[in-house]
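Re: that backbone. Tokens:
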């Protein structure tokens, strides 16, 4: 829960900063163009995001890639049943992040979280499955965790095989 609250807070902060920058630059632009809206990824886009995440974590050719559309709260509970649903508010919708539409993706391969910060002496997370939560409105990767077990994405939505 703490990790998702931190990630949710970071997403909200990044979104607020981005919107502030867009608003400032838009106000000074002489063309009067509207700021760019978030672009929801298609399933092909979700697959590209997932494959990029897999390559970052050490396996550019994962197998068994599956995706389901769900909410952040359901996805978080699927990946860690001990977690409570995030309660922070999504500034885009003024609803709790737990209700934010996401894609939960799982895939098989050999993954190591090389870009994650770990305490000195702590093992870098690794596993034969990579589970992701991807924001359905922006394509932002909310969570990316190597694990020894692939998430059963069909438990939170209709699972579709990608690739």
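Recovered sequence:
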């Amino acid at each position: 829960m703490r990790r998702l609250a931190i990630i949710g807070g970071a997403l909200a902060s990044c979104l607020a900063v981005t919107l502030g920058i867009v608003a400032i630059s838009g106000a000074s632009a002489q063309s009067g163009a509207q700021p760019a809206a978030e672009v929801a990824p298609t399933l092909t886009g979700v697959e590209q995001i997932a494959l990029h995440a897999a390559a970052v974590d050490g396996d550019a050719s994962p197998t068994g890639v599956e995706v389901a559309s769900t909410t952040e709260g359901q996805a978080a509970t699927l990946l860690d049943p001990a977690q409570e649903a995030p309660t922070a508010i999504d500034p885009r919708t003024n609803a709790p992040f737990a209700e934010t539409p996401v894609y939960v993706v799982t895939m098989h391969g050999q993954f190591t979280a090389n870009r994650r910060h770990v305490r000195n002496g702590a093992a870098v997370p690794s596993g034969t499955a990579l589970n992701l939560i991807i924001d359905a409105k922006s394509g932002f990767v909310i969570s990316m965790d190597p694990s020894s077990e692939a998430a059963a994405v069909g438990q939170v939505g209709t699972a579709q095989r990608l690739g």
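The longest strand covers residues 101-112. Residues 1-35 have pLDDT under 50 and may be disordered.
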